[in-house]
Write a structure and sequence with these properties.
Elements lengths: L6 E7 L8 E7 L6 E10 L2 H7 L16 E8 L11 E4 L2 E3 L5 H4 L11 E2 L18 E5 L4 E2 L6 H4 L5 H11 L7 E5 L3 H12 L3 E6 L5 H7 L3 E4 L4 H5 L4 E6 L7 H5 L2 E9 L12 H4 L4 E4 L5 H13 L6 E4 L4 H9 L6 E5 L7
Parallel strand pairs: 10-11, 10-13, 11-12, 13-14, 14-15, 16-17
Antiparallel strand pairs: 1-2, 3-4, 3-8, 3-17, 4-5, 5-9, 6-7
Helix pairs in contact: 4-5, 4-10
The protein binds zinc ion (2 copies).
The site of one zinc ion (ZN) has 8 residues, from helix 2.
Cofactor: Zn(2+)
EC number: 1.1.1.2
Keywords: Metal-binding, Oxidoreductase, Zinc
């Protein structure tokens, strides 16, 4: 039976840290009892792909096939699969398994698995194999780590929701972005633009804090109510004590005391961007307004599904630039320069073309 056989898949692969991409053929396991095989249609390019390909976050596993923003169609299911059928529109995000037994896993917060989640790529699967991600035409994943993409969102716009979307949705929900709440989104990149769309759809009053006013029109079009440049010192006096929640999506180090000063009593500054250097602050910045400085890491499977359903209901996808397999190297350089509106997605069908 063809559905139960192992397959090979065209993929984009990097052999050594910082090397260029090359086309390759990788093996995908035969679907096990609870696995689904997915024909990938689009894979988003996340900034963390670049860090891992260039080995900027400690040791990476090579060869590497990056990609953890995956959207596609189920083409085969194992005998025990109950949630999905052939033809279903599905997505896979940053992890493809976890221990399933620790407290976070049992609570559906697999992203905080105490034994470490199995990353979609640059990870080690339960069977010891290196995981290969979405810059490929097929992937095989346990159905419990697969989510459903609503009909209303096309695959290219949906792919970035699997990392960028859930990374901002989870903290926006946890810190109650909604009617009557003032939310600031720091940075208007891949994460930030989805932060604006989702916070707006949740009913919050949304402000973008960006280095300059260059993206102001985009920010307002995406749903922001206000837009301020952080390069303008007066921003920090004008907006002092304004926000219930500041969601920081940039990885450049922030002057934390200045940003904390923008929070109201009991406000929270939530970080999802990762600076390469340790940060410092004056604890008085927390004490004077009973403020919270915290972070958030993607989201669990249940919440990722909730996010996709929410985006389907509100017709929210990512704004993307679709590229072919040969353009990924150039796209990486543009992402590093923040020269993308707002996410690159790879049309993996182009892996077929010589
Ligand atoms: Zn990512
Ligand atoms: Zn666990």
């Amino acid at each position: 039976m063809t559905t139960s056989a192992a397959t090979t898949s065209a993929a984009l692969l990097v052999r050594t840290p910082g090397a260029g991409f090359e086309r390759a053929t990788i093996a995908r396991r035969a679907p096990r009892e609870h696995d689904v095989r997915i024909d990938i249609r689009f894979a988003g390019i996340c900034h963390s792909d670049i860090h891992q390909v260039r080995q900027e976050w400690g040791s990476s596993r090579f060869p590497m096939v990056p990609g953890h923003e995956i959207a596609g169609v189920v083409t085969a299911v194992g005998s025990g699969v109950s949630r999905y059928r052939v033809g279903d529109r599905v997505g896979v995000g940053c992890f493809v398994d976890s221990c399933r037994a620790c407290e976070p896993c049992l609570a559906g917060e697999q992203q905080y698995c105490q034994r470490g989640m199995v990353l979609t790529y640059n990870g080690r699967d339960q069977d010891g194999e290196t995981t290969y991600g979405g810059y490929s035409q097929q992937i095989v994943v346990d159905e419990n780590y697969v989510v459903r993409i609503p009909e209303g969102i096309d695959f290219a716009a949906a792919a970035p929701l699997l990392c960028a979307g859930i990374t901002v949705y989870s903290p926006l929900r946890r810190w109650q972005a909604g009617p009557g709440r003032r939310v600031a989104i720091v940075g208007l990149g891949g994460l930030g633009h989805m932060g604006v769309r989702i916070a707006h759809a949740l009913g919050a009053e949304v402000t973008v804090l960006s280095q300059s006013l260059a993206k102001e029109k985009d920010g307002l079009r995406l749903g922001a109510d206000h837009f301020h440049a952080t390069s303008d010192e007066s921003t920090f006096t004008t907006l002092r004590g304004s926000f219930d929640l500041i969601l920081n999506t940039v990885s450049a180090p922030l002057p934390l005391d200045a940003y904390l000063g923008l929070l109201r009593l009991d406000g929270a500054l939530v970080n999802v961007g990762v600076p390469s250097e340790p940060s410092s602050l004056n604890l008085l910045s927390l004490i004077v307004g009973r403020r919270t400085l915290t972070g958030s890491n993607i989201g669990g499977i249940r919440e990722t599904q909730e996010m996709l359903d929410f985006c389907g209901e509100h017709q929210l996808g990512a704004e993307v630039e679709v590229i072919g397999a040969d353009e990924v190297g150039a796209a990486y350089d543009r992402v590093v320069r923040s020269d993308v509106r707002f996410r690159f997605v790879i049309d993996v069908a182009t892996l077929d073309q010589a």
